[in-house]
Each structure stands twice: as C-alpha cells, then as structure tokens.
Write a structure and sequence with these properties.
The structure is a single chain. The protein is 31% helix and 23% strand. It is an alpha+beta fold. An eight-stranded mixed beta sheet has the order 4-3-2-6-5-1-11-12. Strands 7-8-9-10 form a four-stranded antiparallel beta sheet. α2 runs antiparallel to α3. It starts with 5 loop residues before the first strand and ends with a strand. The structure holds N-hydroxy-L-asparagine. N-hydroxy-L-asparagine binds next to β8. GO terms for molecular function: N4-(beta-N-acetylglucosaminyl)-L-asparaginase activity. Its EC number is 3.5.1.26. This is N4-(Beta-N-acetylglucosaminyl)-L-asparaginase.
Length: 301
C-alpha cells in the first residue's frame, strides 16, 4: 500500500467515519468506496443531530437530507431535500453511476431511491421531534457558531455536517458530504453540502475540499471549488482554506461575526489543512501510520 493513503473528516464524530473509511482503504479499496462507507456510518450514527436518521427537522417538522459524492476523475452525484431514506450518500452515488444527471431533489430523488431498492423508512426520531417542539416555543432561526455539546440526540445545536475526503493507495482522491442541513431551516431549503463546488469538490490533478457551517456562505462563494483552485495555484491546503475564509469575510463582514464556516482540504500528495471562521472546528485524520490513528486537529481563525 502507498504510505500516503489517508482519510480526513470534519468534526469529532469524523473519528468514527474515518475508522470505517480506513477499513476500506486498508483492504486496498478505492477512495470512492471509502468515503461512501464513512459517510454511511455517520448517517446511521444515532448520536448525530445533524446528519442522517437522527437529524433535526426543518421548521415544519420535516427531516430532509442533503448529500453529495465526488470522484477525483470528475464524476459526481447529489441528492437534496430527500426524505425517509437512511443513506442519502448512497443515493447520490447511484445518481452518479446510474443516471445521466448530477442531482435529484425531493420527491424525484425519493422515487429514484425506491426504484433503486432503497427502503423508505420514517426517519424523524422521537428526540428530534421533541427538540422541534421545544424550538417551536421561540421559533428563532439563529444558527449557533459551533455545536458546543457534541451532537447528542436532541441537542439544540443546529449544525455539523460530515465532510470526508480520502486518498487511496493508487493516489486517487474522492470525497463525500452528508447532512440534515441547518436545523429549523425553511422547508425546501438546500444548503451547500449537495452542491458540487460549494460543499464538496474533488480533482485528482490537485486535491479535494469540503465544508461545514452555514451553507449559504459556501454557496455564495463556490467555496470548495475555490479552495481547490487556490491549491491549483500553489497554495498549501491550510493556506487555501484560510484564503477562502478571508473571501467569505470580505463579502459579508458583519454576518461573518455570527456564522461559522469551516473548510477542510487535502492535496494529491496527502497534505491536509483546515481553517474556520471561528474557533471550535476540529477535524479527524486517519492514515494507519504509527501513533494515534484518530488524531483530532484544532483549526481556527
Ligand atoms: C448546511 N453546511 O446545510 C450544512 C450544515 C453544516 O455543520 O455543515 N453544519 O448548510
């Protein structure tokens, strides 16, 4: 195996996703299979109020899921506003591999998923329903800078997406991003995570980037694409993430004081970097090398 094979994921629960993804890489599996497996782990993790089946709903009490997957050769697929399917990342992969399209949304995405053999399962947990009832007492949409307590079911915190990037032994990159989006969002709202170039971008010639935080800022700045393009111009992953954050701030200096935006990047050599608008963003890395395999790295402004 190639010494540089590695996997990185956003936030502390990225440790769990990385372990599963590393299992795939260590068996000689592809980066694409690795990121899908890691994202699936997060989607079924019953402790994450912002990804998959345990996610918090929108302001109408509906849980809608967004996900994307991209291979370093440019192939990509995504789903947005998908309801009642446990593994949106796998539906995104099916969009990529089995349709002439890149993205399916809402009813159409669900219809496609069912036709592909994915089971329809009512997903909103009792805890999430309870959190939504609590939220309705104030009905304020004020995203927190970071989820202070780490994503226990029913947390009032309302973001923390899994973005996962992998480099396999063949030097091939892939990435995936999966989320239930901002809790208490408007029904029908789509964030950055399923938008190729915003929440995720991968190019084997250069590197890969993913994002977490308030997705509107990533969409405005085509942010993951921006990070990859900055690496193409010679920046290190960390520098590229920092410059992308600076761009976000320049565009909306006032809003930037209240919003979290986080970027995580890896170049084709396996160098990793991250930067966040506010303190508190961590990412997890697993490379199978000596020492702790599940290092958490802090990265802040
Ligand atoms: C979104 N970026 O839907 C996602 C939410 C998120 O950490 O990342 N939270 O805007």
């Amino acid at each position: 195996a190639n010494a540089i094979a590695r996997v990185v994921s956003t936030w502390d629960f990225g440790v769990g996703a990385n372990r599963v993804a590393w299992g795939v890489l260590a068996r000689g599996g592809s980066a694409l299979d690795a990121v899908e497996a890691g994202a699936r782990w997060a989607e079924s993790d019953l402790c994450n109020a912002t990804v998959g089946r345990c996610g918090n709903p929108d302001r109408d009490g509906v849980l809608t899921l967004d996900a994307s997957i991209m291979d370093g050769d440019g192939r990509c697929g995504a789903v947005a506003a998908l309801e009642d399917i446990v593994h949106p990342v796998s539906v995104a992969r099916a969009v990529m591999e089995k349709t002439p399209h890149v993205m399916l949304v809402g009813q159409g995405a669900q219809q496609f998923a069912v036709a592909q053999g994915f089971e329809k399962t009512p997903l909103l947990t009792d805890t999430a329903r309870q959190a939504w009832r609590e939220w309705q007492k104030t009905s304020q949409y004020t995203p927190q800078i970071n989820a202070e307590r780490r994503q226990r079911p029913g947390d009032a915190s309302n973001h923390d997406t899994l973005g996962i990037l992998a480099l396999d032994a063949g030097g091939h990159l892939a990435g995936a991003c999966t989320t239930s989006g901002m809790a208490w969002k408007m029904h029908g709202r789509v964030g950055d995570s399923p938008i190729i170039g915003a929440g995720l971008y991968v190019d084997n010639d250069v590197g890969a980037a993913t994002a977490s935080g308030v997705g509107e800022e990533m969409v405005r700045n085509a942010a993951s694409f921006l990070v990859v393009e900055l690496m193409r111009q010679g920046r290190s992953p960390a520098q590229a993430c920092r410059e992308a954050i600076e761009r976000v701030v320049r565009k909306r200096p006032e809003a930037s004081k209240r919003l979290q935006v986080c970027f995580l990047a890896m170049n084709r050599q396996g160098e990793v970097g991250a930067f966040a608008l506010h303190k508190g963003f961590v990412y997890a890395m697993h490379d199978g090398g000596p020492g702790p395999h599940d290092r958490l790295h802090d990265s802040s402004s």
